[in-house]
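Reviewers of the previous submission asked for a worked example of the structure-prediction workflow described in the proposal, so we include one complete record here. The input consisted solely of the amino acid sequence. No template or homolog information was supplied to the procedure at any stage.
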Amino acid sequence: MNIHEYDVLNAIIKFGYTNQRNIADITGYSLGKINSSLHALVDRQYLNDNYSLTEKAYNEICSKKPNNAIILAAGYGLRMMPINEEVPKGLLSINNEVLIERLIRQLHEAGIYAIDIVVGFLKEKYEYLIDKYGVNLVYNPEYGLKNNIHSLNLVVDKISNTYIMPCDIWVENNPFSQYELYSWYAVSDMVDDESTVRANRKMELVLVEEGKAGNAMIGIAYLLEKEASVVRVRVKEFCKMKKYDKSFWEEALFDKDNKMITYARVFKSSQVYEINTYEQLRELDYKSKHLKSKIISLIADVFQVDTSAIKDVTVLKKGMTNRSFRFSCNGERYIMRMPGEGTDRLINRKNEYEVYKVIKGRGISDEVIYHCPTNGYKITKFVENSRVCDPFNDDDVQQCMKFLRDFHKCKLSVPHTFNLYERIEFYESLWEGKPSIYIDYMETKEKIMKLKEIVDSLPKEWGLTHIDAVPDNFLFADDRIYLIDWEYAGMQDQHVDIAMFAIYSLYDREHVDKLIDSYFPEGCPGDIRVKIYCYIAICGFLWSNWCEYKRFCGVEFGEYSLRQYRYAKEYYNIVQDLLATI
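From that input alone, the workflow returned the following structure tokens.
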């Protein structure tokens, strides 16, 4: 049976047969297609000559009846910033109706009560659904490290005649039914440049060619046992491989011919919404109570405007320490910064506040509009037409090092110090007794501690040090350079900034030496170069410990974390080799 015949049969199951035109109106197919499908269904004995359902049809309906549903609700929903700081996406209110509750009620209307919800971020917020709707909550502890294919893997053995869906979908008409005759995946008729699939004439979902648009993917699917058995195996296999850590579960739907094993179910774009961003929520329901989050209200208070004046909210790339979004107000653009997971233990916000007071008005950093020394919320003027430093562009690097050296010459001062060795111990203490992921951690730590004596014996340039003077924090705008994000800044040997730039850029030794030479155009003394090598080893170890703590918080940095640990070991050896020749 092809999809046209399935759809005609389904229309008769739901509405009965009156005439061919009525079936055409329901399915959207031509009268010719309806006619040929009806004849095929009669020939296959699903319909009798009066186009009534036969026993064979009823058996088909029974065998393909939906058994259960799975709702994926574990992720951060980062694009929903700033609302996701207070409520997970599934609990957003649209027209006074909670998104996930609407989905549950629609499932109940279709006779589906066996519902598993996979939760993670703010999992406790979903707990009330157990009593209100009798759902089962399944916790995904890896929600911060891996994508939703790993959420599905937790309930993978329950997939058989099953609906699978995200928690952030709003569909005007109930997309679920007690009658399903084939496996399908939902897309809309809207053309989407970011979609990877399109529905062809046979209603198959195929991968789009590179550079071309497809049908917007909605995320709801129905899997009969035949296709479910394939997905169960693939999901289990994929979740054993690291390369699928960031994958969506839909990857398990594609066969070797780059075609989904399901048919397409096409919805009108005017009837279905995926709520991914603050602006999408405002577009769907401008009266939603979640538009007035405490962060949006804070911004409104700072600028003395109504919340409706805060527009064009756009989430920026998640940083290693914070989350940020850009917004417009009164014709100007700004950036709102909010601390990330576990940051309250990593950053002393009062110290940061003191640093910004010292550098204020010197044209060193971007303009701060609002800064709370308690929670770390910060609003800055967006630097228009700016770009970050390219660490592999010699001209960029030379300009950054000149800027850094000029800043260092100011010899600014603050009351606090960033002590490298204290920070190493502090970050390790945050692991709360958990062992390092590195087998030779204690041996490496012992070596790094031995470098302190060498560093202490060498001359230093003491003053306010940025500590995080990495390429991404140097902004080029017109003829100016800004150095932003002073969270870790404190009193220290200012040559630490050179080492930090190098290890964040993942430089090899040749690039490290070029960097040092850019900072010291007159030539770098040999003992200072050795000291900077020591700092590369020490700082690599320090940030490796920092990355391990963030990993415990559910944030993974991949290669960056590994390379920092390698810097600790490799540059310790480089220093020892150099000292042996002196």
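Residues 58 and 407 are 80 Å apart (CA to CA). We consider this example representative of the routine output the project will generate in years two and three.
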